[in-house]
Specification:
four-stranded antiparallel β-sheet, elongated, single chain, alpha+beta
């Protein structure tokens, strides 16, 4: 088996990751970060309609009535052909019944031939939005800490704490990639983001643990080999398994996204697309980031010990 020098190519991998992070940072400044209604509070109204509707006009009417920032979107269910007007009303409070009735009347008056029918109304107070956001961040941080503790205990013989920290860095890399995906594709950060983040954490750390296991086995088998040689060998041996597993996940999630897109199921789309890209990132960070980082840390510690 030809051993791939992942450690020797580490600077290329780091450059790729930094480029992705830079793109995300630029997009944050250009387009901003959209928070879903669950995290920021406000109202979301969905109307089914027929014929044609001017979404900008609907936004202007809504903004005049509620005196708040409003965005609108027109979607079509490719399976049924049903058209839907989505009205997102930002703000620190929900939409009361009187304003909703007033808006309903105004829209039906402006578009009498559209046969507008309110199909869904979601309202979230900002207090609950902030609470959901805080709890979501806590869940992500707690899972990350537990991952470090688990890896620390399980891989004590190869430097468990350093292995756990580098696994955490790889997980952070994956979470940033998922975040950048949401920013670039204008997917609001909401409960779907938390669900994807927690799924990716569990999924990515599983791949990383497989490689650490192989490193531990090869360290016993080849005690005279350097840490970078053992790590490169272990990653090379595990690479095919990681790629095949992630490819299967990618195909499955991609099919879910295609079906959700065809049927205009936005909640599923906002989960499936970041999940698909996150699974690719998880495979990449496991193979190209976690191992080389761990080797770099071990070599740095060895250099320090020799100097003292």
């Amino acid at each position: 088996m030809k051993i791939i020098d992942f450690y020797g190519k580490r600077r290329i991998f780091y450059a790729i990751s930094l480029t992705i992070f830079l793109i995300g940072l630029i997009m944050c400044f250009v387009d901003g970060v959209q928070l879903d209604i669950q995290f920021k509070g406000g109202s979301l109204l969905k109307y089914n309609y027929k014929g044609e509707i001017n979404a900008d006009k609907a936004a202007d009417i809504t903004s005049d009535i509620v005196n708040r920032v409003v965005s609108t979107q027109v979607t079509t269910d490719l399976a049924t052909g049903e058209k839907r007007l989505v009205i997102n009303i930002a703000g620190d409070y929900g939409l009361d019944v009187k304003d909703q009735e007033k808006l309903d009347t105004a829209l039906k008056k402006e578009f009498p031939d559209a046969q507008l029918t309110l199909s869904e109304s979601t309202m979230v107070e900002p207090f609950f939005g902030r609470k959901f956001l805080t709890n979501g961040i806590k869940a992500i941080l707690l899972s990350a800490v537990l991952v470090v503790i688990y890896v620390w205990i399980r891989f004590r013989r190869i430097g468990g704490l350093s292995a756990g920290i580098m696994a955490l860095v790889a997980l952070f890399h994956d979470l940033v990639v998922v975040f950048v995906t949401c920013v670039v594709f204008h997917i609001p950060i909401g409960d779907s983001f938390v669900a994807v983040a927690l799924t990716i954490i569990g999924y990515s750390i599983n791949d990383t643990i497989v490689i650490y296991d192989r490193i531990r086995e090869n360290a016993k088998k080849y005690p005279k080999e350097s840490v970078e040689t053992v790590t490169n060998l272990s990653i090379t041996q595990s690479m095919t398994r990681s790629i095949n597993t992630n490819l299967a996940v990618l195909i499955s999630v991609s099919m879910i996204y295609i079906l959700a897109f065809a049927n205009s199921i936005e909640s599923v789309q906002s989960f499936a697309l970041p999940m698909a890209i996150g699974s690719i990132s998880g495979c990449y960070s496991t193979i190209c980031i976690a191992g080389p980082l761990w080797v770099a840390w071990k070599k740095h510690r060895e250099t320090e010990r020799k100097m003292h």
